[in-house]
Amino acid sequence: MSDRLRQLQEKYRPHFEKIADGASERDATRELPYELIKQLIADGFGAVRVPVEYGGAGATLPELFELLTDLATADSNITQALRAHFAFVEDRLVAEPGPARDAWLRRFVDGDLVGNAWTEIGDVALGETATKVSPTDDPDVFRVNGQKYYSTGSIFADWTDTTAQRTDTGDQVIAVVSTHQDAVARFDDWDGFGQRTTGTGTTIFTDAEVSAENVILFSTRFKYQTAFYQVVLLSVLAGTAAAAEKDFGATLAARHRTFSHGNGPAPQDPQLLQVIGEVSSAAFAARATVYRTAQALQDAYDAAFALREGTLTLEEEERVNDHTELASAQGQVALTGYVTNAISHAFDALAASSSSTSKNLDRHWRNARTAGSHNPWVFKAKQIGDFATNGTVPSRIWAVGSTK
């Protein structure tokens, strides 16, 4: 462990402990953690990847994902709520140097938070974007119109990272829209059974204003973005497993009742301890997987700068990104079932009382199952198999939409 990571973990431990204290109640009541996220970001958490010379902590990607896993252990919802923010930070870190990049790095240090508005539901055709960005009479101002769903984190954020199409050129773009305007309406209408307090839901843009400098060609996004988004979800799974280990272990430790057909009179029957040990092992393996995939992300980040400096060819840089995508997919396939099944099996260490809604232990399974349902792993497994068999590299960009 680096000294920097140790210092960052020490700095944010009080935040994580406070977040963990109310996680179960927030899940039960669907209370959004506005103030907790505000405090965390105000203490510089959103800028841990920003270089020190700009006022950030200069953390590496493995260090960032260690912190995100710690946070997910406290409340996996908050890690997922910050997913889009850290992805946009990463995009700006890799962006071409210049005033626009510098302005964003300063915003992150000042505590600005970015959310997500990418997905459109309904009959939007596969690969198309119904949200439009239009020029105005003022060359420095564009207008955004459209509706998004799964806008994770945007309800907490100062900006929302929005996919759209320009009406004048037809280009696919990212419009980074300030949420501090009446033309942006955000709703907490996510009705999933897990990850209930991620602030996911609908965002509607009605002639929302965005500055020209914040209309960014999608083709310039950092190449390892899909892998990055996936590894955040892996940290959500790893943290959820660690939280389950803690809560199920504490519940078993507090038991005074046992069964006559057990292995002895002790409530902590050896077979039940074995179950908790299996959950603990799943949490260990999940964290190790997050670390390994985060290192692959770091390789892709380093390759982007090596390409710019001329020490790596484009072909070599593409190959690094392909392997980063593959690593994130392998991690997803490995962890989705492993973590979800381990948490489900954790109930075998307890009795029927563990299903009490007052204990809310089921939230760990619900959260893991929900996080694991993103970007279906079965398609990723197919791509991994195609690479292993035929050398076909996995796709790094994909879309969702109607095939009607």
From TrEMBL:
Keywords on record: Oxidoreductase
Acyl-CoA dehydrogenase C-terminal domain location: 237-375
Listed Gene3D superfamilies: Acyl-CoA dehydrogenase/oxidase, N-terminal domain, Butyryl-CoA Dehydrogenase, subunit A, domain 2, Butyryl-CoA Dehydrogenase, subunit A, domain 3
Record SUPFAM superfamilies: Acyl-CoA dehydrogenase C-terminal domain-like (SSF47203), Acyl-CoA dehydrogenase NM domain-like (SSF56645)
Domain named Acyl-CoA dehydrogenase/oxidase N-terminal: residues: 6-97
Pfam family, one: Acyl-CoA_dh_2
The organism's place on the tree of life at top rank: Bacteria
PANTHER family the record matches: ACYL-COA DEHYDROGENASE, ISOVALERYL-COA DEHYDROGENASE, MITOCHONDRIAL-RELATED
Name by which UniProt lists this protein: Acyl-CoA dehydrogenase family protein
Gene source species: Citricoccus muralis
